[in-house]
């Protein structure tokens, strides 16, 4: 199964291309903003306080979330890494994000799926989306 993470505008001869960055209507954008790159929103505040109180995070991760609350933004690598916990929480119930991941998983059983964002080659939240798609796709029947 081929799922790539690349940059918006990369072109591919085959497969499905999906933009997963912020804005442009993607539900898979990272709600955790990077300092100096995206704005702090009420959604960002809600997710950050969720992270601060989530029991399964490491002490370091919780500190990163606390610092982001004061600075109104995350470091690039932190936002991408901590998105794992956001996506997991979003996929616990039937949400637009879970439905999007399941749709991409179904597509991934049929051909390459190319995720696109702005971050590459910097750390990108789409790596977690890729892992989630792979996980779900393995539970789906392969087309004959
Ligand atoms: Zn990204």
UniProtKB/TrEMBL annotation:
Matches recorded under InterPro entries: DUF4326 (IPR025475)
Residues in DUF4326 domain copies: 10-129
Domain of life: Bacteria
Name listed for the protein in its UniProt record: DUF4326 domain-containing protein
Record lineage: Bacteria, Thermotogati, Deinococcota, Deinococci, Deinococcales
